[in-house]
């Protein structure tokens, strides 16, 4: 997410998450649920906000992974509280990184990621994508359209958004995950906040 004192909120999503049954979703039909940690219950931090506008990257095509990014602009400002926090963008160097997935019990679960040292990732990176790997001992699949957050100097940064075709869901036997690299789109994002 990108925040600013005079901006409501800009959130990045994969563009393909805004297409349903071959039709692009209208902003009026979208709601953003902030602070969600369980699919089976609500918590004190959850907030639903309507979408004012969404912007899909002008070079995105449904057939590929390049430019699979969209910006969501919310109708009202987000109040940051314990369960709803901003994330910075713009750092390449980090000490640890995580993604999330929904466990069988319905709880949002952190998953540690590694971005190097795996033969499966070689050749999978595009101009604006990269590959990350999670351990074989992980029983939770990373979420489609989920984030890759990286910690640098005790601050969390949004590093990527998972690229995957939601219509191709199934068991996650392959522990490699492709992400759209947010750092490749900083100029494009800034264009919409100025």
From TrEMBL:
It holds the Pfam family Trypsin. One of its GO terms (biological process) is proteolysis. PROSITE patterns: TRYPSIN_DOM. Residues 14-194 form the Peptidase S1 domain. InterPro entries: CLIP_Serine_Protease, Peptidase_S1_PA, Peptidase_S1_PA_chymotrypsin, Trypsin_dom. SUPFAM superfamilies: Trypsin-like serine proteases. One of its GO terms (molecular function) is serine-type endopeptidase activity. This is Peptidase S1 domain-containing protein. It comes from Euphydryas editha (Edith's checkerspot).
